[in-house]
Amino acid sequence: MTMRWLHLGALGGVLALASPAVAKPVAPAKVCEVYPDSPLCETSVPACAFCHAGNPPPRNAFGALVEANLLPGAPRPLSDEDFLGALGTALEAVEGEDADGDGVTNLVEIMAGTLPGDGSNYPRELGCDEGGTNPGYDVCNFDPDFVFKKLNLDFCGRSPTWEAMETFRQTADKKAALHAELNRCLDSEFWVGQDGQVWQLAHRKIKPLQAIKAGEDSGPIPLGDYYDDYALFVYSQLDDHDAREVLTADYFITRRRNPTRYEVATAADPIGDQDVDQQYRAGVLTTKWNLVLNVMFTAVPRTAAAQAMRAYLGIDIAKLEGIMPVPNEPQDYDEKGVTAEACAVCHSTLDPVTYPFTRYQGLTGSSGTYDPNRIQRSFPNEGVRIDEMPESGVLLGQPVANLVEWAQVAANSDAFAKATANDYWTLVMGRDVQPEELEEFTALWQAFRGRHNYSVEKMLHQLIETEAYGVP
Questions:
Q1: Which of 418, 454, 421, 407 has its CA nearest to residue 242?
Q2: How do the residues of the chain divide into helix, strand and coil, expressed in percent and rounded to 5?
Q3: pLDDT digits (tens, 9 = 90+) for 185-227
Q4: Are 25 and 17 in contact (CB under 8 A)?
Q5: pTM to 2 decimals?
Q6: How far apart are CA 440 and CA 113, in angstroms?
Q7: Which long-range contacts does 164-167 make (Cβ < 8 Å, 24+ apart)?
Q8: Is the peptide bond before 25 cis (omega within 30 degrees of 0)?
Q9: For the chain, which terminal residue's Cβ has fewer other Cβ atoms within 10 angstroms, N or C?
């Protein structure tokens, strides 16, 4: 089972309790007002699975129980005001019941961070089988020997030799030896090289398409060189570099070979056809590849904004995550019908997020550039109010004047820190965060934005010391 409520992108799931056809994006925040100490609210707010079976509106057993206690007899649909006013009372009314029949009350599940509407998801006692033994590893505790082998596989791409393993077993300060070994692996081609682990981590963010690649290894229709995007992404993840600069950098990166190394480009370094002036650059958001691929021919490039949020903040608006409606939105400047009832909930968030992308050329005008007059120049017939569309917008509830500010707000958000930590957690663990691991995960992302000063490598040194990573 995929526990979406533990996914870091699940920042704004929808609880459609007021009517079978009306979603309530305001509900998750209210749940966290009632249960601020729930693990469900430590890293985000509850997503759809808290009350729904799949995507809304179908409700699971807990959602149905809450609805039965939500102003029973009142006409549906409820207004947001009435819904919010009654939700806390309805939640508290069912705390002592066991909606999913798993033997654990709803309140205990909420405070443990499990799902009160899913009978297979409930708090479990963790422990060791006293009758079992393992001749190689301490299966009940953090085992440095296990970690030494595991980190070689995860970060160097191979098992340690028998000699290296024996040497480690005899080492007096195993903790220091583990960190030294991790440092060695973090410089390996397996980790930083082309198609290495960090490079592959960027695939779903950059979305390479060789047919339209320019530059080295170009395709038949060369439009943009995504190698520049990979170079900037990997550079931001190495050494003590600030990972936020994947979104905020006003520079480009060159990649050199044998061994692979990434360096800030100088005036003497050719950087293909990157044409956005420095003052308008926002990391990978304004590379020619991203603009060509995601802005393309559109006046209101909602795809570019949605992909940026999905890739770097872990928020997928298409799944009703991160819905934070902006007053008087959507305006539908391009006359796409987004004010329709079925569309307005998402677009009241998505369109203000998109406005800062609208002055960057994709495949119109001079592609891959910033043009303050792009709308008037390229889309005079897109809509009668298209000229009124602002460049300023709203991201995560904060006003932003342009895409450079958009990138800064995104990079400094909790969502960015959580999404970055989650990228590496799932990469080396091979799975999502489990309920019993949430405390360690929360400490990881908070340290990443705190004492680690957004250094991914420092965060990884903390990760290998967790029980989640080091207990066989």
A1: 454
A2: 45, 5, 50
A3: 999 999 999 999 999 999 999 999 999 999 999 999 999 999 9
A4: no
A5: 0.84
A6: 14
A7: none
A8: no
A9: N
